């Protein structure tokens, strides 16, 4: 049996990541091998004697070295699954997270149809695009202050909305500026704004702190960011429209109070699956 068979190289890759103290080394190695060999994970074990070519070996070697050096797997693969769909990601956007899928679940439990969905601080576009696809919304607006992030969002929109009836708009704007004016008004506005406090940044996992954009993570002035987000949403929501925010669990009740004080008629704080008060829902 060749020493370069798939299963032998996979086992060596798993051992290498374990030696480098990478968390879940078997899973990480399998994700990397499946992606670059264009296989399902199960196929890695259905084709154990498949010989790997020198270019494949080099590609896998470089990917494993990046993982051992602390690079997020999503950046190595160039994509991350979110709500069952592949989203392209880069160092210019946050990597989609499971708790944000929970935000989507909460919205879908409340909203059964929507004409216009808006994603403020869209990043990869994962929240807005997922909701537009699930609700078959005719209109979607993706807004971000970062042009590089919007390039990623546009790539995902072009790929995922191909063949769908949703028309989308990309808007390079700062939702804290007070200048965002949308027509038509939105039925649903969603946002995962920066909410990590500056003093918490250094303690973040190195893969997050060093590899994801600080501007999308950290709220240098938490209250200002959230009050301006609430103001932007209030001015751009249709009557009875919904604002859904993922925010800092420690301050979600304050965010809810700010929304209520701004004029939203009903506001709720909702927990994630870890029982943390992670989401704020406010109805116009």
Automatic annotation (TrEMBL):
<feature type="domain" description="Methyltransferase small">
    <location>
        <begin position="101"/>
        <end position="196"/>
    </location>
</feature>
<comment type="function">
    <text>Methylates the class 1 translation termination release factors RF1/PrfA and RF2/PrfB on the glutamine residue of the universally conserved GGQ motif.</text>
</comment>
<dbReference type="InterPro" id="IPR002052">
    <property type="entry name" value="DNA_methylase_N6_adenine_CS"/>
</dbReference>
<dbReference type="GO" id="GO:0032259">
    <property type="term" value="P:methylation"/>
</dbReference>
<dbReference type="InterPro" id="IPR050320">
    <property type="entry name" value="N5-glutamine_MTase"/>
</dbReference>
<dbReference type="InterPro" id="IPR019874">
    <property type="entry name" value="RF_methyltr_PrmC"/>
</dbReference>
<keyword id="KW-0808">Transferase</keyword>
<protein>
    <recommendedName>
        <fullName>Release factor glutamine methyltransferase</fullName>
        <ecNumber>2.1.1.297</ecNumber>
    </recommendedName>
</protein>
<feature type="binding site">
    <location>
        <position position="192"/>
    </location>
    <ligand>
        <name>S-adenosyl-L-methionine</name>
    </ligand>
</feature>
<dbReference type="Pfam" id="PF05175">
    <property type="entry name" value="MTS"/>
</dbReference>
<comment type="similarity">
    <text>Belongs to the protein N5-glutamine methyltransferase family. PrmC subfamily.</text>
</comment>
<dbReference type="InterPro" id="IPR040758">
    <property type="entry name" value="PrmC_N"/>
</dbReference>
<feature type="domain" description="Release factor glutamine methyltransferase N-terminal">
    <location>
        <begin position="8"/>
        <end position="78"/>
    </location>
</feature>
<dbReference type="InterPro" id="IPR029063">
    <property type="entry name" value="SAM-dependent_MTases_sf"/>
</dbReference>
<dbReference type="Pfam" id="PF17827">
    <property type="entry name" value="PrmC_N"/>
</dbReference>
<dbReference type="GO" id="GO:0003676">
    <property type="term" value="F:nucleic acid binding"/>
</dbReference>
<dbReference type="GO" id="GO:0102559">
    <property type="term" value="F:peptide chain release factor N(5)-glutamine methyltransferase activity"/>
</dbReference>
<dbReference type="InterPro" id="IPR004556">
    <property type="entry name" value="HemK-like"/>
</dbReference>
<feature type="binding site">
    <location>
        <begin position="192"/>
        <end position="195"/>
    </location>
    <ligand>
        <name>substrate</name>
    </ligand>
</feature>
<feature type="binding site">
    <location>
        <begin position="121"/>
        <end position="125"/>
    </location>
    <ligand>
        <name>S-adenosyl-L-methionine</name>
    </ligand>
</feature>
<feature type="binding site">
    <location>
        <position position="175"/>
    </location>
    <ligand>
        <name>S-adenosyl-L-methionine</name>
    </ligand>
</feature>
<keyword id="KW-0949">S-adenosyl-L-methionine</keyword>
<feature type="binding site">
    <location>
        <position position="144"/>
    </location>
    <ligand>
        <name>S-adenosyl-L-methionine</name>
    </ligand>
</feature>
<keyword id="KW-0489">Methyltransferase</keyword>
<dbReference type="InterPro" id="IPR007848">
    <property type="entry name" value="Small_mtfrase_dom"/>
</dbReference>
């Amino acid at each position: 049996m060749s020493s370069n068979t798939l299963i032998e190289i996979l086992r060596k890759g798993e051992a290498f990541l374990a030696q480098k103290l990478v968390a879940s080394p078997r899973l990480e190695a399998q994700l990397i091998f499946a992606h670059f060999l264009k296989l399902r994970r199960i196929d890695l074990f259905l084709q154990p004697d498949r010989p790997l070519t020198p270019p494949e070996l080099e590609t896998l070697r470089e990917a494993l070295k990046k993982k051992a050096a602390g690079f997020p797997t999503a950046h190595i693969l160039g994509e991350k699954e979110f709500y069952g769909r592949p989203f392209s990601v880069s160092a210019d956007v946050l990597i989609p997270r499971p708790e944000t899928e929970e935000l989507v679940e909460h919205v879908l439990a409340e909203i059964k149809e929507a004409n216009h969905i808006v994603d403020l601080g869209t990043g990869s576009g994962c929240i807005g695009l997922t909701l537009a696809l699930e609700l078959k919304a005719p209109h979607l607006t993706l807004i971000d202050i970062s042009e590089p992030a919007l390039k990623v969002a546009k790539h995902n929109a072009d790929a995922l909305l191909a063949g769908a009836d949703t028309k989308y708009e990309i808007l390079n704007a700062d939702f804290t500026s007070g200048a965002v004016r949308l027509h038509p008004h939105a039925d649903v506005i969603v946002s995962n704004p920066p909410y990590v406090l500056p003093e918490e940044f250094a303690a973040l996992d190195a893969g997050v702190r060093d590899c994801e954009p600080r501007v999308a993570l950290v709220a240098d002035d938490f209250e200002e960011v959230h009050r301006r987000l609430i103001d932007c949403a209030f001015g751009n929501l249709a009557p009875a429209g919904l604002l859904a925010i993922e925010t800092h669990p420690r301050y979600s009740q304050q965010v809810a109070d700010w929304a209520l004080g701004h004029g939203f008629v009903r506001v709720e704080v909702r927990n994630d699956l870890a029982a943390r008060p992670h989401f704020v829902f406010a109805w116009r």
